[in-house]
Amino acid sequence: MDPIHIPQLTKAPQQTEVINFNEPIPGLETLTPVQGQLKVTHRGSYLDVSAHADTIVTLTCHRCLQQYNYRLSIAPSELIWLDETSDQVDLVLLDRDISTEDLIETLPPKGTFDPTTWIYEQLCLELPQRQLCDQACKGIELTPVESPSPAIDRRWASLETFKDQLRS
């Protein structure tokens, strides 16, 4: 998917661009191409971005370490604010605590919106934290191993005989 130049979006019909896609996303290993639809609408001071996408990924169970296929479906929506200063790094901000007002997504109004990166991020956020092949997965089955009798160090042999004399 090609990046969307934000000023060009204002000239689109209803200031909206709809992208249908069926392609692999770089950096995300999937069994099937990611397919879905992305809608980006310019609302003056922000972009309204929504999508739905589906793919199948191979995950590894955290209990039994077996690989399994997982259907990854997303339907995210997000408001991305357009701010002239969004691409500038303020060194003063790097040395302070981050407040909730700083946790908003911003883009420069004359910049671009990369739909591939946005879809990639949304898919990664939807991957399960706890990856289990089945809710009833018991994990790796351990087989009991017969432990050999401990070898007696000959240096301790005289102590062992002394211990046996004390018992009698």
Describe this structure in words.
- This protein has 168 residues and is α+β, with helices and mostly antiparallel strands.
- It has one domain.
- 16% of the residues lie in helices and 31% in strands.
- Strands 2, 3, 4, 5, 6 and 7 form a six-stranded mixed sheet that branches. A two-stranded antiparallel sheet has the order 1-8.
- β4 (46-60) and β5 (67-74) form a beta hairpin.
- It is elongated and about 100 Å long.
- The mean pLDDT is 87.
Biggest sheet character: 6 strands, mixed
Beta-sheet strand percentage? 25-35%
Global geometry: elongated
Oligomer: single chain
Low-confidence stretches: none
Distance between the terminal alpha carbons, to the nearest Å? Answer: 86 Å
Radius of gyration in whole Å, from Cα?
A: 29 Å
Q: Strand-and-helix sequence, N→C?
A: EHEEEEEEEHH
Mean pLDDT: 87
Total DSSP helices: 3
What is the count of structural domains?
1
Number of E-type strands: 8
Question: What topology emerges from the helices and strands here?
Answer:
Blueprint: E1 4-5, H1 6-9, E2 16-23, E3 34-42, E4 46-60, E5 67-74, E6 77-82, E7 106-107, E8 112-113, H2 115-126, H3 157-167
Parallel strand pairs: 6-7
Antiparallel strand pairs: 1-8, 2-3, 3-4, 4-5, 4-6
Note the main attributes of this structure:
two-stranded antiparallel sheet; 3 helices; elongated; alpha+beta
